[in-house]
Q: What sequence folds into this?
């Protein structure tokens, strides 16, 4: 276990220093080339778990330390161990002993004694510490206070929307700390959802049909073990993200631009639903390669272009544009647990400026009577309907069309969402992540 703790501590300390976990974890693993697959898997689980509940474990550690630790690695090791003692199934004795061993390997000399003392104090004082923290919202929800305050303001309570389930700030925060579902998109060109569900049943894989092309597995399995994935029968894509292609509703033969296309999930879905001339645009060559790889697996074709959507100029106007713009990603934190701690409240203004620039430029690339679907994976209003309202104020030739989930997607299972007269704001639930959709037409 201590090898996994060491790896996780390296990854966590790097994230807290400002690095993305998707980069920090592979680098941490590279320090232990002889680690077994089990140790690597455990290290990943500990890294994600510690960061998922960082607000809570850091609050406990702060109460236990007489003064802040200057050694970032030992600090991270303690965070990992406290996470285990709070949430992991391993027994307390093993967690403490292995953490002390990891501290001995890491050095300095005083580390073993400190780690041993802090963790044993935690076990002795756990109930008293919990009592002290019961009014600490950062510890309770494991989000930065500014994030909690923002959701309190925008989603003030666990209220009901017509026949929908409660979707207030507490539900959003708590759902964001759950493990995300593994959802597949069935390729209509190759099979139907009914046939694919039968295939899964024959192979002993339990799953449910969420609606349209979406199938959610009861238990996550490695991608390479998903039946039909290698030959393009299915793709991994969140149910909420799958709504994009249905809401854009592109007809056969249309000229389509998928801006900010990487990694290509929505690109592939559009092409699965209709034969269209599609251009996939992204400003990162490595990410554009992922789009190409995904399309190759699906045996689909698109015109791949490297470029910035904020400055992109089309040779010929497009009939339909999917604008999946960069955002805070506040709706997908359970998949990217580091986002909560890497984001700053001031980042919202930076993103909204970028979104505005992209939206204005793409509007110039849209044909008259053409449609543009604006998409974010955010639950913050500033990036969503407020952004659309601002755009409509300065573009007289733009009209926002009404969207209806039930009209575009055959929902067989209830889906939590907030829907006003025009847009759709998906709230993270057990079935999908948080997304925002608004459809504009050019007069």
A:
């Amino acid at each position: 276990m201590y090898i996994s703790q060491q790896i996780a501590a390296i990854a966590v300390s790097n994230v807290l220093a400002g690095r993305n976990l998707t980069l920090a974890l592979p680098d941490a693993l590279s320090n232990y080339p002889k680690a077994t697959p089990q140790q690597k898997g455990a290290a990943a689980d500990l890294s994600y778990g510690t960061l998922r509940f960082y607000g809570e474990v850091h609050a406990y550690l702060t109460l236990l330390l007489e003064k802040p630790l200057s050694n970032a690695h030992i600090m991270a090791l303690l965070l990992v161990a406290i996470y285990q003692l709070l949430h992991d199934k391993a027994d307390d004795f093993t967690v403490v002993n292995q953490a002390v061993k990891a501290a001995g390997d890491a050095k300095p000399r005083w580390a073993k004694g400190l780690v041993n003392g802090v963790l044993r104090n935690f076990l002795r004082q756990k109930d008293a510490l919990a009592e002290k923290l019961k009014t600490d919202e950062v510890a309770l929800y494991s989000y930065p206070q500014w994030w909690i305050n923002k959701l309190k303001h925008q989603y003030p309570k666990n209220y009901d929307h017509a026949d929908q389930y409660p979707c207030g700030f507490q539900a959003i925060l708590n759902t964001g700390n759950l493990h995300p579902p593994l959802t597949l998109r069935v390729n209509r060109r190759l099979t139907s959802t009914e046939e694919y569900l039968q295939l899964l049943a024959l192979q002993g894989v339990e799953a449910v049909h969420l609606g349209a092309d979406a199938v959610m597995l009861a238990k996550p399995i490695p991608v390479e073990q998903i039946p039909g994935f290698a030959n393009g029968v299915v793709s991994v894509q969140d149910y909420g993200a799958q709504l994009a292609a249905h809401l854009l509703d592109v007809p056969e033969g249309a000229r389509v631009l998928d801006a900010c296309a990487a990694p290509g999930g929505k690109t592939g879905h559009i092409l699965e639903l209709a034969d269209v001339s599609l251009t996939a645009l992204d400003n990162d060559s490595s990410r554009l390669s992922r789009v190409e790889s995904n399309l190759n697996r699906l045996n689909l074709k698109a015109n791949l272009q490297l470029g910035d959507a904020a400055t992109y100029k089309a040779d010929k106007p497009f009939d339909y544009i999917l604008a999946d713009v960069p955002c805070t990603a506040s709706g997908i934190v359970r998949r990217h647990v580091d986002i909560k701690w890497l984001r700053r409240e001031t980042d919202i203004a930076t993103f909204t400026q970028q979104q505005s620039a992209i939206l204005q430029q793409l509007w110039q690339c849209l044909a008259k009577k053409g449609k543009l679907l604006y998409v974010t994976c955010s639950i913050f209003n500033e990036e969503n309907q407020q952004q659309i309202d601002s755009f409509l104020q300065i573009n007289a030739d733009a009209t926002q069309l009404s969207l209806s989930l039930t009209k575009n997607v055959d929902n067989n299972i209830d889906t939590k969402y907030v829907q006003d007269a025009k847009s759709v704001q998906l709230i993270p639930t057990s079935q999908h992540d948080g997304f925002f959709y608004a459809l504009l037409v050019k007069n």
Notes: The chain has 18 helices and 13 strands. The first strand starts at residue 182 and ends at 186.
